[in-house]
Design brief:
- This protein has 15 helices and 8 strands.
- The protein is an alpha+beta fold.
- The protein has a single domain, classed as Cytochrome-c3 Hydrogenase, chain B.
- Strand 7 and strand 8 form a beta hairpin.
- Helix 3 runs antiparallel to helix 12.
- The radius of gyration is 20 Å and the shape is globular.
Length: 368
């Protein structure tokens, strides 16, 4: 038997979510591969078209569990564009705090996930402890740890609780001090460098062919394309931050950008806490219409910069109480589905988990 079929995931520590990579191997070289994205069969897009605008807030976070808040933001922003609704100023800044905390959380999960396939479980434990501290903050703000249902059409569900600013500052100050430690445990660790240096390359021509965005693109083409800069939403045009890039496209370069993005998210959060004004946090619908809010006819696309790249909702309203059509642009679709089929072959078996981890794969974004 020359060719053997192997499975990576969903139980493998290098796999995120319930996806599985099917690999046909000759020795330890992958000859053919494809992704089975979990067979979720949840039909998120069609479900949204059968639920009320307000009720969708409880469904959409499940499109990407590690970073659910981007779904709330994109959905709410698209609806607000159709409604021509102006969100209260304070709500914009609160949204940015939530989104940047979610970005840090997602990067920590991915960076810590490096510990599974490389055998460095200390890195994984450290990252998940810090991620749990972010979930503690989310729980204080929203009442929930994972599915927050906090960013809603018209603003945010409720104002920040008293004392939460201090909790956030304590956490980001402590995390910032230990970013050097994260580098020592991960991308500067000699045993891990041997696994991630000059492996899982993503050349520039592949980026353009597949439509890869986010860290995958910024590590390959050395261009600071970031939706927060190119098409600013919320108040990202009123804060200063850098977009980390690289002129080399291996796995180590992508992980290096993740660490640098965590630093930039900390910088953004500090500015949000300093500049955030007082005032209302939500424009509520008329009394009696809170559950059957109608949105006038129209369409809109709301792109958001997720930890994996450009994530967006394209929504069409026919004037009813539910969206008429919804299309989700999953940020991990190009490299997660097409990339695994076309460019994972030729690499080694032990590189497959590193592809999934460093490229950023969120299976519900693909099987939606």
């Amino acid at each position: 038997m020359k060719e053997m079929k192997l499975f990576l995931g969903p139980q493998h520590p290098g796999m995120h979510g319930n996806a599985s990579v099917h690999m046909f191997v000759d020795g330890d070289i992958i000859k053919r591969s494809y992704l089975l994205p979990g067979m979720l069969h949840r039909g998120f897009e069609k479900q949204m078209e059968r639920k009320l605008w307000v009720n969708n807030i409880s469904l959409i976070p499940r499109v990407c569990v590690p970073e659910p808040d981007i779904n709330e933001m994109s959905f709410a922003t698209a609806a607000e564009k159709i409604l021509k609704l102006e969100v209260p100023e304070r709500a914009h800044w609160i949204r940015m705090i939530i989104l940047e905390l979610a970005r840090i959380s997602a990067h920590l999960m991915a960076y810590g996930g490096l510990g599974g396939p490389t055998g460095n479980y200390t890195l994984m434990y450290h990252a998940h402890v810090d991620r749990n501290l972010i979930l503690d903050i989310f729980e204080k703000i929203t009442g929930a740890r994972v599915y927050h249902q906090y960013i809603v059409i018209g603003g945010v569900r409720q104002d920040l609780p008293d004392g939460i600013e201090e909790d956030i500052n304590v956490f980001i100050d402590d995390l910032e001090r230990r970013l050097v430690e994260y580098r020592d445990l991960g991308i500067d660790n000699a045993s891990i460098v041997k696994r991630i240096k000059d492996t899982i390359m993503l050349p520039e021509e592949v980026v353009w062919e597949l439509g890869v965005t986010g860290i995958g693109m910024r590590s390959a083409v050395n261009k600071p394309y970031d939706v927060r800069k190119v098409v600013p939403y919320a108040r990202y045009d009123q804060v200063e931050f850098e977009v980390p890039v690289s002129d080399y496209s291996d796995a180590r370069a992508r992980l290096d950008i993740k660490i640098k993005e965590i630093q930039q998210s900390i910088i953004i959060i500090r500015q949000c806490l300093a500049k955030m004004p007082e005032g209302p946090v939500r424009v509520k619908p008329d009394r009696g219409q809170s559950m059957r809010w109608t949105v006038p006819k129209g369409y809109a696309y709301a792109p958001i910069e997720s930890s994996r790249g450009e994530f967006g909702y394209y929504m069409v309203s026919n004037g009813g109480t539910s969206p008429w059509r919804v299309g989700v642009r999953g940020a991990s679709y190009p490299q997660g589905l097409l990339g695994i089929e076309k460019y994972l072959p030729g690499t080694r078996i032990d590189d497959a988990a590193l592809w999934v981890d460093t490229m950023g794969i969120c299976s519900p974004e693909i099987d939606r």
